[in-house]
Design goal:
By secondary structure, the protein is mostly helical. The protein is about 70% helix and about 0% strand. Helix 1 packs antiparallel against helix 3, helix 1 runs parallel beside helix 7 and helix 6 packs antiparallel against helix 7. The longest helix has 29 residues. It is globular. The termini are far apart.
Length: about 190
């Protein structure tokens, strides 16, 4: 029962965040994300985003081993994937900086992990939730990982319009060089960097 409550909280957070992105996409004049310097918009975003991670992890703990995955492989895959995801999240947040992470105007960041993907934080969260689903062998966390991927697409689309407005041609040129998420260009660049 508690697992379903944690799942409902996480799903509600993702639904609320997705609604903010849909409003931003369909009514740009009422854009809710990126929040920029508007504290009310930022607080609204944070009201949905802050409880999300604890609710996902609570779901994983409370729904532990409810899925069909055989031990010990799911433990190994998850135990490797979760720290990698946290490393991607920490590095991408450092690369982007606090102001830009919160949706404030800053310089266009194209170095660090942003050299490989335009949205490493989104990639990191999807990886984190997917690895957590495998680690916990939890179908509920798996469903949240899929919902997080869908939300990430909406968030990126909402941000791209704003980024084009703010950075213009420089952003368009960046888009031509670097994939939205992860793609062949990402792998080619990683291999060329060695």
């Amino acid at each position: 029962m508690l697992g379903l409550i944690a799942f409902a909280v996480a799903a509600g957070c993702l639904l609320g965040l997705s609604a903010l992105m849909v409003v931003s996409l369909l009514a740009p004049e009422r854009r809710l994300w990126p929040a920029g310097d508007d504290d009310r918009k930022r607080r609204l975003y944070l009201a949905f985003s802050r409880p999300l991670l604890p609710a996902v992890f609570a779901t994983g703990v409370l729904d532990w081993n409810a899925g069909p995955l055989a031990a010990p492989w799911h433990l190994g895959v998850g135990a490797v994937g979760v720290p990698i995801a946290f490393a991607v999240l920490n590095r991408s947040a450092a690369d982007l900086g606090e102001a830009a992470t919160e949706g404030r105007e800053d310089e266009l960041r194209t170095e660090g992990l942003y050299r490989y993907t335009r949205n490493p934080q989104n990639v990191g969260y999807v990886l984190l939730f997917a690895a957590s689903a495998v680690l916990a062998n939890s179908p509920l966390v798996g469903a949240l990982a899929v919902a997080t991927a869908a939300f990430s697409v909406l968030q990126v689309l909402a941000e791209e319009t704003w980024l084009r407005d703010v950075y213009g041609d420089a952003y368009d040129e960046y888009c031509e060089r670097v994939p939205r998420f992860v793609g062949v260009r990402t792998l080619t660049r990683v291999l060329d960097d060695d």
